[in-house]
Amino acid sequence: MTSGTVHPYNTLTPDRVLDAVESQGFLSDARILPLNSYENRVYQIGVEASDPVIVKFYRPQRWSQEQILEEHGFSHTLKEQELPVVAPLRNAEGRTLFEYEGFQFAIFPRQGGYAPELDNLDNLLILGRCLGRIHSLGATLPFEHRNAINLQRFGIDSVTYLLSHDFIPPSLKEAYQTLTSDLLHRLARIEKDCTFTLIRVHGDCHNGNILWRNNSPHFVDFDDTAMAPAIQDLWMLLSGDRQNQTVQMAEILEGYSEFFDFNPAELNLVEYFRTLRLLNYSAWLARRWEDPAFPMAFTWFNTERYWAEHILELREQLAALDEPPLAVFGQF
Known about the structure:
There is one protein chain. The protein is an alpha+beta fold and 332 residues long. The protein folds into two domains: 8-109, 2-Layer Sandwich (Phosphorylase Kinase, domain 1); 121-321, Transferase(Phosphotransferase), domain 1. Helices cover 41% and strands 14% of the residues. It has nine helices and nine strands. The chain has a five-stranded antiparallel beta sheet, covered by helices on one side. Helix 3 packs across helix 6, helix 4 (151-163) packs antiparallel against helix 5 (170-193) and helix 4 crosses helix 7.
């Protein structure tokens, strides 16, 4: 998008949001609440004589229709197996993806809950069981249109994008280039040395995408569902120091292995995927900088201080890649 061009989301006015929802047969009571989402635009919409609904307007040109429908299909397949996922609503014709004045959108039931306490081992056991069931089904078929989470997309492409644009201060660009070159080579060696299988995964399984209620989780926002090793959905549940993470992973895998076999070799990929997420996050902010919501929400991104701290974080991550993987014992 060139300078001076109106960003598509600037045309997504409250009236247009309500009209889109009503185009699918809902009678709005005009209550509209923006929810915390930057990649897409998500709103809670009040409905006359009924519970509110959640409407997600997909970022234009990010996903193809086929990719979005694979997301929806996977969610519904999981839900049909009585897994705790929030799937998009179907209309009378069975459709889940709609279009209104250039925007693709989906409507979801509102699911109450709060982020789970990931330092609670009982919660991790329950989450492990749920993810084992999700992955058991995810391993039955591959995606045909969704992307894979891999070194090329999240690592190489991210670094290439940042180095070819003017976000990194000139005084720090050489340090970033040298460091990321070392990181990418190290990640390539880890990938080459580790045997793993790609399956359908949630893809962005942090606690903000899990709603906890009545001692049970509900998994939401499959927007980043992808092909990846199972560990991609597990490592983001870890927190604290190495000792804590070892105990946490053991608890997760105890529940997980009740429903799906875990490949212990994938423990070698915990820091691999953590590094890819760090690299991709900075590139994601840069790629979205022309969306007016991003400079307003992430004021610290385009600053020398941010890049100095990011480079320090990447140096620490390079050291973490050389540490032995988590040693979790048990039958997986």
